[in-house]
Write a structure and sequence with these properties.
Layout (H helix, E strand, L loop, with lengths): L7 E12 L3 E2 L5 E2 L6 E4 L1 H14 L19 H9 L5 H11 L1 H6 E5 L7 E5 L2 E3 L2 E6 L2 E8 L16 E19 L1 H7 L3 H12 L15 E10 L9 H6 L1 E5 L12 E5 L8 E4 L2
Antiparallel strand pairs: 1-10, 1-11, 2-3, 4-8, 5-6, 7-10, 8-10, 9-10, 11-14, 12-13
Helix pairs in contact: 1-6
Length: 282
Amino acid sequence: MKKLERKIDFVAILTVDRANANGDPLNGNRPRTDFNGLGEMSDVCIKRKIRNRMQDLGHRIFVQSDDRCDDEYGSLSERASAILKGEKNREKYAAIACDTWLDVRTFGQVFAFKDAKGVSVGVRGPVSIHQAISVSPVEIESLQITKSVNGEKGEKGAGKSSDTMGMKHFVRFGVYVVKGSINVQLAEKTGFSYEDAQVVKECIRTLFENDESSARLAGSMEVRKLYWFEHNSKHGQYSTAAVHRSIKIAPKDPTGFAECFEDYEITLEHLEGLEPEVLDGV
């Protein structure tokens, strides 16, 4: 495996077209927005999708969702105990975990379980992901729906139970921006390699593959562009903030409502000695 020797920054541009990008369970599962009406996707949501893509690409991950579990373990505690086998040395514990699971050496993980017999280990991962924010305020539409499931039998003599009513919420259209960075110093500690970085790049480029649901129909969410900056050293020629600011996105008509990706203009500010790899997403 090739060591990661250069700092990496990245910016991904996503579109949401009549889909619920990230529902808020404390607000009736409506798409998340801030006080200015800008759409939001939490970093936890984005990392979950990256982990799912890692699994799709054949890599072992530690934090698995129940519907994607690919081993016999029913909890994180069971999975950790089976692999780490009561290891007491914290450094060895972290090293085994990082070597076993790609998401641990990517994002880090806190291991603090009751059956660990006092062992509590924290791993800091080299890959940081910001929450995604929409470029413009988003319009949220709500539909009242009928759930014709007859999930429960009615009272004696009443026949089938009646249909129930529900709500479905979605963003009419929005362009969201995801920003992130890969730190070389932390990569050296977890064993995160250059090949691992390429896996992360492919996961972000194909973020919504196999992610369809009733809230996110196939094709309703798409990665349109991925800007991947590889610096010439472990510290980088520019700060991560400067790299992220070099990509500017704005609606072509600020007074109108943008209804498609082509209604936005992307400007890439030139940073001397640092040219991004620009990839089309899926």
